Amino acid sequence: MLLVGVCLVLGWQITTVRYQPPAEGALSRNNATVVVADPSACPASISDGLATADIVVPLAEILGHCVRQSLAQLEQQGKAVILPHEWRDEFSTLPALKSGQAVYRVKVSFSTTPQGLWSLVLPTTGNNPAILVNDRLIGWGGSFQTPVARNTNRPLMFTIPQGLLIQGDNYFDIYVVSEPAATGFLDRLVIGRAEVLEASYQRYHFFRSTLPQIIALVVLVLSCAMGMLWFYRRQDREYGFCALGGVFWSIYTLDQFVVNIAGSYRLWDWLSVVSLGGLSLIGVFFIHRFLQQRYPRTEQSLLISLVGLALLLAVVPEAWFYGLLRFVAYPVMCFSLLYVLLFAAHAAWQVRSADLYVLVAAGSVVVLLAFYDLMVIWGFESLAYGRFLHFGAPFVLLAFGWILLQRFVRSLQAMESFNVQLIELNQELEARVEEKTRKIAQSYETIRILGQEQVLLHERSRIMRDMHDGIGVYLTSMLRQLENDTVDRQQLSHAAHHALNDLRLMIDSLGSASTDLPAMLGMFRTRIGVALEACGVDLEWNVDELPPLADFGPERALNLLRILQEAFTNALKHSSATCIRLSAKTESKSKGSSLIIIEVCDNGKGFNLEGRAGNGLKNMRYRAQKIKAEFAIKPSVLGTCLEIGLPLPNV
């Protein structure tokens, strides 16, 4: 409530701003005599081309003739008035004022002849004046061509040529043209030395003319900024309504400083009231969305009413137009703004939000100034002091700036809080990940140890099984022969040799050469060479450069060596061969697969494939299946060939 009270006091102080001449060195005159301008001598519209110097009848002569002809009737039709004087108050006594032209005479007496350069200040006038001092034109406010220049909200200062003011009575004649006539008036006259009046005139000119221009420009620029903000954040519709409302407000503010308008006065006044209507409508839409509430029927009804009123004002006759403005259009706009204020105040009372308090404070100033302007339109306040609704824009801009700043600060605080929480969560997550990583590493270590133990157990079991199936059989055979009374030394020797060869094969398969096939075949050649030499059998060795077998391992190596051992043993026992050839090479098959082909061929008596296969052949097939190798026996012209195909992984 304190904030609202302060804003209302500030708003009311704005409405009390008046032109304050210097306390010393200035003369203020309020007494004047007014007479309706002579229509035969005062044209309703004077061309701007008459202001040039190279014409037959210049503008100064036309205005001087108009004033002199009008003042000729001053004694019969003149009326003494107190300035500021408004025409709408005189229509009953001076109906001729409805023509929109009048001449004022103000008498100023000096006891001595004024020295130096003097000036005349008109704080306000409606709409365009021409000033004559002692029957000499000293200046005018602008174009007298319809539509005439609008100086209602612009102070005017005219320099009085030196020597024009004399000792005794001096007459200041002001010819005023106003359209419409109801807005015509003349404020008091202030005369004094030019250097004395200059500072006060400039201050009041800034307040009445320059400041509204600055307000309109700032509102328009900020509206564009709000529009860009809404463009990138379409979900925040209040920014879009704020931008559109700022555009309407800028258009409405043009009425305060535009001197030469385009089109007619009626069109300009229609544009002004439509922009004010758009502003009040946007205010309703904005406050509903700002408070996240929807009243579609209220908004639709208000939209239809304002659009209908705007269309009605565009088509009604001239005689009705300004009556509708005064008693229908402006009151509707003001009460729409009052609705926005009351709606926001009710929400602020319930929610207790600082943003709403600021918005209510700014809105209270806007409503105060709007109703003050309505009082001016209805005649309860003077036209001479102007309207003040446009001065509500800075309050609204400050309110929105504060709200946006608070939102920005809250967003930063929320972001900082979020970042702190995120850092804490990251630290907690890192701690959890570190703990989980440690546990996973422990699990992997446990699995690795168990895997190693499992491999050791598997390898131990395999070695024990191979020893049992190989060396164990031969040792058992030897033990039984030794337990008998008669010992066959030859069989005992064969069993010992077989056991020793089997042990050597197991040792070879356990070495690092289990994945290096050429090295493994080389060790096999060393082992089998003794037996071939003892039997007088030649060995042909044809082994190419072979790729390593990464996943071969000791078990598969042992099975391959036993297949080769069985193949050589069979050739030595049964084929009567004089030469055995071992070859190994790489062959490519279909679909990109490759094989290592190992062949064992002899030049013996051959092999009957249709006969019954013995245990040796079955064992070789079984071992080939265990190492996932292809196995085949191929008869040849001389002897027998055994082929083993080891698959290579696809590259």
TrEMBL record:
Coiled-coil stretches noted in the UniProt entry, renumbered to this chain: 415-446
Transmembrane intervals: 211-232, 239-258, 270-291, 303-322, 328-349, 356-378, 384-405
Keywords: Coiled coil, Kinase, Membrane, Transferase, Transmembrane, Transmembrane helix, Two-component regulatory system
EC number: 2.7.13.3
Reactions this protein catalyses: ATP + protein L-histidine = ADP + protein N-phospho-L-histidine
InterPro entries assigned to the protein according to its UniProt record, in alphabetical order: HATPase_C_sf (IPR036890), HATPase_dom (IPR003594), Sensor_HK_TwoCompSys (IPR050482)
SMART domains, A to Z: HATPase_c (SM00387)
Lineage: superkingdom: Bacteria
GO biological process, one term: phosphorelay signal transduction system
GO molecular function terms listed in the Swiss-Prot or TrEMBL record: protein histidine kinase activity
Domain Histidine kinase/HSP90-like ATPase, residue spans: 555-650
PANTHER family: NITRATE/NITRITE SENSOR PROTEIN NARX-RELATED (PTHR24421), NITRATE_NITRITE SENSOR PROTEIN NARQ (PTHR24421:SF10)
Name the record gives this protein: histidine kinase
Organism field: Thiothrix eikelboomii
